[in-house]
Design brief:
Blueprint (H helix, E strand, L loop, with lengths): L8 E6 L2 E6 L18 E8 L5 E5 L6 E6 L9 E4 L7 H5 L6 E2 L5 E5 L10 E14 L2 E2 L2 E6 L16 H13 L10 E8 H19 L2
Parallel strand pairs: 7-10, 8-11
Antiparallel strand pairs: 1-2, 3-6, 3-9, 4-5, 6-8, 9-10, 9-11, 9-12
Length: about 220
């Protein structure tokens, strides 16, 4: 269970308007909103950019970004990569992935396509859901939602995974199938399917419901 502290906020005048200010930094998993229009438009907390050769991951206790490990191979992530706040891959997510034993127990992963290069992590971007990868890692449901940067001048009009060139999806599949690969060892991860927007929205809803059940206070 996660206990959320009450946020101290104040109304500070700025000319004719007032702005609400948080006095404390929210935990990116539990303190940020899931998005402005879920399950279609989500907030994505970015842990890794296409320029990173380290595997960064949010620390679940402090909420700060930490180094998980160096990337074992030369593979670099094809897109921005992070997670959706206030989601959890539990039993509902597992039921949408046949053949899995459980959800991976993490927030829902999300990839965000952007035409312009974004080199910074530990930022929040808005992603419009267009599809996903049904990834199974060691028997656990580890879905990767595919989205496009909201209002992106090139990809912002995409509404389904079929609206982007197949090579982008191929790159994502190749990355997730190989970034943990150790020569001489059998791979533990596989991608059971690539799905479109309709199923992706079901996965997002399931992850939101899993979170509410697991962390409700």
């Amino acid at each position: 269970m996660v206990t959320r502290r009450r946020k101290r906020i104040s109304e500070r005048p700025t000319g004719k308007e007032a702005v609400t200010v948080n006095h404390f930094r929210p935990h990116p998993w539990h303190g940020l909103d899931v998005g402005p229009d879920p399950p279609e438009v989500l907030n994505a907390y970015i842990e890794i950019t296409p320029f990173d050769l380290m595997k960064y991951e949010v620390d679940k206790v402090s909420g700060y970004l930490r180094v998980d490990r160096p990337q074992r191979s030369s593979a670099q992530h094809p897109t921005l990569y992070g997670f959706v706040p206030r989601t959890y891959c539990g039993e509902r997510v597992r039921k949408l992935a046949p053949g899995t034993r459980r959800g991976d127990g993490d927030p829902l992963d999300i990839c965000v396509l952007s035409e312009r290069a974004i080199t910074r992590n530990e930022i929040i971007v808005r992603g419009r859901v267009i599809g996903g990868l049904q990834m199974i890692d060691g028997g656990e449901a580890d879905d990767k939602i595919i989205s496009v940067l909201e209002n992106d001048y090139v990809w912002g009009g995409a509404r389904n995974v079929s609206d982007v060139p197949p090579v982008f999806v191929e790159r994502l599949q190749h990355y997730f199938l190989t970034y943990k690969l150790v020569p001489g060892q059998r791979p533990k991860a596989r991608i059971a399917s690539v799905y479109g927007r309709v199923h992706a929205l079901k996965v997002v809803r399931a992850a939101m419901a899993d979170y509410e059940e697991s962390f409700a206070i």
